[in-house]
Amino acid sequence: MPAGGPASALHRAVRTARRHLAAPLLVGLLAAGLVHQGIEPRYVAEARLRVEGGPLDARAGAVRRSQFQLITSREFARQVLHRTGIGARLAAPGGLAALMSFPSAFAAAPSDDERALRAIEAGLRLSTSGDGRATIGFTAADGVLAADVANAFGDSYVELRRSFGDGAAPVSLSRAVPPRQALGLSPLEWGLGAGTFGFALTCLMQAMWRRRTRPVPAASTPEAAAADVPQAPVQHLPWIGSRLDEESEEAPKRTRSRLGRDGELADLSRLVRLRGTAARLVVVTGPSADEGTAQCALALGRSLAACEKRVVIVCLDVTAASLAELTADPRAPGLTDLLFGVASFSDAIHRETASRCHVIPPGRGAREADGLVASERLGLILRALVETYDHVVVAAPPLGVLEEAKRVAALGPTLILVTQPGARTTDAVQAFDALAARGFGDIAMVTFADPVPGRLPHAA
């Protein structure tokens, strides 16, 4: 049979179950055993006395109730113990006391009679009524013992009345019957409950301990990132619209026809579509604050929407004038309202009239991009949008200079770095390295051809 066959899978499953369930099972069984032995069932048996005779007046009823009180006296209890010999059964320890009892040489224990008297005082109950009736109840861990004690007290009282020759008001006894049902839960039920609780608690503590001792991923902290664990490689996506400004003397000169803005935008839109789910979140930024970065994000979103994609443009760069003009009302709710929790998604998402895009404008409130990038709610908002749209295009401020940009990088976006036409290649490379240092992995660079005033085209 191959090594990865059913026998091997069964062996791994048994080994995993043994490693994870051994301790919870042991704790559950121990808790169930201790509680089962420590909890004693409580049975109540009742014997009834009745004084024979005609109706009683109030004075006679009070006299007979006082006579019944003799049953609860300690001296009467001693007489019952000596007469019936039931004291040995009452003095026997039960439950954990029987397992943990110490010899008399190590601990001074009360005598059997004293233990029996204490058991009688704890379990004996007497209730009387004005019509010459009394109920002797006794509670014990054994139903037969409870009935025997109640009957012993009833028989002793009847014998006492006869010995004094009180024939004018004879007393009849209805003997107690051993009860079948204990009061409350049985020891077995208590033990099962304690075992289940111990098992569940141990499983929870194991899960918390494994989570606490789980090794931290390499990219979670700067210290771990600087350790020997290799980081995920940075993927340099194609540089759209680039031109070699500096040539090597050894290498032959390479020529490249420069496309117009429409062609470069089409290349960028095609790149995002080809990446599919890897480019559901697209962040457009630049090495420095520039209106062209916001225009590139708008043009990219409109181009993707023209290809029957569900697209939303998120205006994170609150200083770009072109982003503030996306809605008819400049004070319409937007991203800042979402971050501050004063608006819902339905309030902040608007339909752009010039295309099929949805847009989240900058919104009202703070106008500092640094604080918005550092917000913890930004990641939650972008994750929720990614679950709804095919592409979420974020028009972002320069992220290479923001330490808080690591929060955005942790979302794993496809990053578009928009460089200025005519800029030096070394400046673009430095901007690329700065973004890579913030944790961005998939970076595409785009340099549009000759700048022209106005907005970029709506679609490729």
TrEMBL record:
Residues 241-260 are annotated as: Disordered. InterPro entries: Bact_polysacc_biosynth/exp (IPR050445), P-loop_NTPase (IPR027417). This is Lipopolysaccharide biosynthesis protein. Coiled coil: none annotated. Transmembrane segments: none annotated.
